[in-house]
Design brief:
The protein is α+β, with helices and mostly antiparallel strands and 123 residues long. It has one domain: Alpha-Beta Plaits (2-Layer Sandwich), CATH 3.30.70. Helices cover 33% and strands 29% of the residues. Strand 2 and strand 3 form a beta hairpin.
């Protein structure tokens, strides 16, 4: 049975295909995936920073990991829908952790982060 418009007349197939194509395009825009590498500098080691970030990540639909670096920085890599990743990073920036962060550097990654959930790495 053909689809009907508000007046009860059948919708042409062209309109149906166009509407479906538009809906799919909109869904792709809304689900734009992103992967980022973030370096934190400041008093970020030996204070529970990684644990707090991992705990904070549980409230977001992101995957990734966080680890200490030998130079005193903390590296975080995260993947997910762009809005979710941005909200996660903004949440870190607005949390109590902000007092420990002196500088944040962000780089886009070409490939998604390989992780199960959100992990603390000890590499």
């Amino acid at each position: 049975m053909p689809k009907l418009c508000e007046t009860g007349t059948p919708l042409p197939n062209v309109w149906m295909r166009s509407a479906l194509s538009h809906a799919r395009s909109f869904a792709r825009i809304e689900r734009r995936m992103i992967s980022l590498q973030v370096f934190y500098e400041g008093n970020v080691q030996g204070v529970g920073f990684r644990w707090s970030v991992r705990h904070f990540a549980k409230g977001f639909d992101v995957t990734g990991w966080v680890r200490n670096l030998l130079d005193g920085r903390v590296e975080l890599q995260v993947s997910g829908e762009e809005d979710e990743v941005r909200a996660f990073l903004e949440g870190i920036a607005q949390s109590d952790l902000r007092a420990l962060i002196r500088k944040r550097t962000e780089n886009k990654l070409e490939k998604p982060v390989t992780a199960r959930g959100f992990e603390i790495r000890h590499e």
